[in-house]
Amino acid sequence: MKKSLFALLFPLLVSAASAGPFEQLLRGLELPAAPEPAPEYLQADDRYWVTVSADDKYDRTALLGAGLDIVEIEARYASGFIAGKDMEQLAAKGFIVKSRQPIQDYARRHLKDFPAADAVYHNYKETTDLLQALAAQHPAETSLFSIGQTTEGREIWCLRLNPAEKGETPSTRPAAFFMGNHHGREHLSNEVALGLAEHLLSRKADPEIKKYLETLDIFIAPLTNPDGAEYDIQTGKYRWHRKNTRVNPDKSIGVDLNRNYDSLWCQAGASQYPGADTYCGPYAFSEPETQAIKRFIEARPNIKTLMSYHSYSSLLLYPWAGKDNPVENAADRKVFEAMARGLTAPTGYRPQQSSDLYVATGDTTDWAYASRGIFAFTTELEGTTFYPGAAMIGRAVPRNVKAAVYLLSVTDDPYRLAR
Known about the structure:
Elements: H1 5-13, H2 21-27, E1 47-53, H3 57-65, E2 69-73, E3 77-83, H4 87-92, E4 97-102, H5 103-110, H6 124-137, E5 142-149, E6 155-161, E7 175-179, H7 187-202, H8 207-215, E8 217-221, H9 226-233, H10 288-298, E9 303-311, E10 315-318, H11 330-344, E11 350-353, H12 364-372, E12 375-381, H13 391-411
Parallel strand pairs: 7-8, 7-9, 9-12, 10-11
Antiparallel strand pairs: 1-3, 1-4, 2-3, 5-6, 6-8, 10-12
Helix pairs in contact: 1-2, 6-7, 7-13, 11-13
């Protein structure tokens, strides 16, 4: 409770008998409220939110290697999280830190309750329950199976929309694979993937959707990093947790799954420091989550398109992420560019090659394209924070569902876009 400045100072300045205009002046002044203490679960978190000089994508790439998890980009600066013990790497690489604040101070300005304020978002159990309900309600069109288990033993559920082949039965139909929540704190990406599943099944009788159900093999894995997502909300407050929950040798938590794929693994744009949010892991495909996705994709040569949902930036990204040069195959490059324009028409997001933002090796889409020839994309959903509130679901899901339906429309023969 705030206390009046008069109540604290007046006994030291004047006696009760001499109280007059000065007392009246002081009576109206108040001391500012004492800052709230840092949340207990963040008190041992040594990360800082920093803003660092960065003139171009090459500077941003070097910052990633130094351990900075870039979250926001301005004209000549980049901002994000970095472990306290990695701060010295910024100075060692010649970067000027414009500002920094401990995550505890950042949290006081950005924390919001979960799940009370965002109860509409689905945690792991609610996601599982919804997927099981959709499969039960639409048995003719769907099947539900796990593609593998996480570090903590959770199942990574995948909903398959294919009336002809169920479960893990192979198919020759052209396939599309939609993935959400690679990063724990990006809960909106789970909602978009779930919204897509609900949209397709609720409109299964519509001529367009019916055509895709009858001719394509559609896979939706909304929560590919369930451990990280659960860890992020475990305390009832958000933790800004990006990685999975591997316990590293230095006792830090997690590997960045989107730096753990075997595509120029742990070169530019990835960190070798375990405490960094962009830590690439001890070796490529070291994590059970990325191993599961690898096995899933390699077992399905019919996968032609892939969408990995992330947040936030309102971007549509395509390979290469780990190389500065464009896709070398001219026909493939033409398909990527044409498909990107089609995908962004309903969302208004900006399409671009991933490395135009910064170079980041070990990326999902690079590996899927390089190793399997899949036209793979990353959608960075709209918003200005990882936790944009419940209202954002109603804005982001419909737009991205339209984009996903477009992706389905070209999955049977992506190369017709290059003809």
